[in-house]
Amino acid sequence: ISDQKPLGCWSVKHGQILTCPVVCNFETHEYIAVHDDKVLRIWKNEDINLDKAFKATDLVLVLQLSADVYRIHSLPGGGPVVLFRGGGVRTLDVLLEAPQQEIENVISDEVIRWSGAFMEGQQLVLIFTTEKDGDFFVYVQKPKLSSLHKYKLEQQESSKPLCFTGHITNQTVTLLCLYSNDSVYQVLIPLQQDTEEEEEEEILPKSLLLNFSVPGTVLKGTSLVVLDKDHVAVLGSLAVPGKEPRECLSIWNTKFQTLQTSKELPLGTSGQLWCYEENFFLIHGKVLTVIMYKCETSSLAAAVGKLKDSQNSDVSSFVNWNTLEDEELVVSFQSQESVALKAESKMNLRSRRSTVAKVQPETLSVGQLLLNLKDASTYVLETELRQLMSKPPTPDLQATIGCVITALTDRCKRNPKYYPQNFLLELVETRDLSYSLCPDLMAVALEKKDMHLLQICLERFPDIPEEVTYACLKAFLSISEAHLQNIDVNLDSVICYIDVECGDKEVKTEIVENGFSAEMDQDMCDTKIPKETQSWSAGESCPVGLQKAALLNAVLHSAYTETFLLPHLKNLPAQQAILFLRYLYYLYVKCSEKVNTTLPGIRSPTINQIMDWMCLLLDAHFTVMVMLPEAKELLSNLHKFVRAQVRFYSELNKIEGSLRELQRLNHLRESQTYSIEVLEII
């Protein structure tokens, strides 16, 4: 989440449908999914592609169950439990022993509307609600004790529950119900100790906990989560008479019936809200947004917004809205809206300082300042921005820098002649930035063909999308060596292992250290190479110049996920793919010259990075390379070299036992003793 980087992607076969959310088994670190209602699949994180894993490995477990699954719940310490659509509950361990066991039908003609799992001590408690003919029922079950209790919710005239949430405290289930009349009701259910089912269902009374009606507005909630015993968060739409509803996220104090803070979501949401470890997760526009929050101690002063704000106060802002404000700032600049409040870098709706009678330039928020400078001259813009960057660090410094870069890239788009290369380089080199803070920066750099800035971004940004990494690779391979001679590029990663003579040609070296030389056995590969093909072997010079090699090294250092990068690599032109593979092969041979297989220099590629990219490139273009005559010699050399390396390490493995015995004997000798010994290894 911190890097906004996808780490894995799994898919089922064509025609299959995932029918409930995937969960993690905290005890075994496995994922559990259900597709087509009855098929349970369990796999580990190492299985990169589920479709292949299902066919090629026994690590992925597939269970065909006898009844439809509604939801799987998994909690740390509680173990996964499976809730079936008929109301039956089984632990995962029980299902693994007998997948086809008969599942009882607990509910009759009822439809499950919500379910939740909670821990009471060491015991997992499962709660689910059902609906039948307008009536709502609550089931409380302890799977390991086979304890089931059924209750009926007290009816509410002219309104019905929209969503549920709850928690357990002191052997009592607190069920919160968001109703269609813009109110939250509370239902208390004591956990009973007996294990027998109730013969008669008990009617549960409810009490009004919260009403969302604010003077002049009505909040239509769609999702509700509990933050602590005194606070809830509601995602919904704010209805104002005469205006279109606006979606917003709000936090309410249930103890004092007050609105703590709220934030409009102009990009729209999916209506779903999740909460985990003091972080909100919601879909805002087209992205998954994470918002940090901190529940303060509930007090009357805090509830009515009268809590004093001072530097020595231990009370922090309730919600950090920076994530949302960064997204809105980008939207406001793209649409050139003049709403300054959208871009405030720090917002605290509970307490506002109003001691300044006259607004000075230094008191403007970052968003207001940037909007005021939108049409300023280049000199004025950069002067003001440098002053802004020179101020003492603040908690929201990262968001401020992201807003500044967004303002600069926006001006570059509107004015093709404007491009503050030095200022952008200074920001990227001196600040700890990420791609997500300035998503348009690399796109502008690609358009301006600013190879130096792209190199720095690739080396420093931890969250570059694979599509952008591919675009940089293609740009580096397509640019001419003559053009690169006039570009300032950081050569620290290549200058120590590419020896340059006049004319920028590398000194030819012979490779013998790790068991391979150009004159090694020629019978390792039967491929015959036409004489007219271009000669390029292990001992030849680097296939690219210093500048291009440094740029390609930056790509090798960029983080990626194979599943997302491979489709883009398949679009790389064949000649560029061959050139890149030649360079990777050159690096591979260079690494093998050294006993520790490490290239000298700063940020030089590692042997693992080189081999991973070689495998990726061959996977994406192997068929094409086999068909191209100019690639045959390269593939042949690569084949011979890899076979020589395998044979060399195989020979080392044969004498591993003898080497260990020598090491043991050295430890037994006295350190002062001097001797010369000849040991014959047979």
Automatic annotation (TrEMBL):
Residues 1-294 form the Nucleolar protein 11 N-terminal domain. Keywords: Activator, Nucleus, rRNA processing, Transcription, Transcription regulation. The keyword Transcription regulation applies. The lineage of its organism: Eukaryota, Metazoa, Chordata, Craniata, Vertebrata. One of its GO terms (cellular component) is nucleolus. This is NOL11 protein. It is found in: Nucleus, Nucleolus. Residues 368-680 form the Nucleolar protein 11 C-terminal domain. It comes from Lanius ludovicianus. GO terms for molecular function: RNA binding. InterPro entries: NOL11, Nol11_C, NOL11_N. It holds the Pfam family Nol11_C. The keyword rRNA processing applies. One of its GO terms (biological process) is maturation of SSU-rRNA.
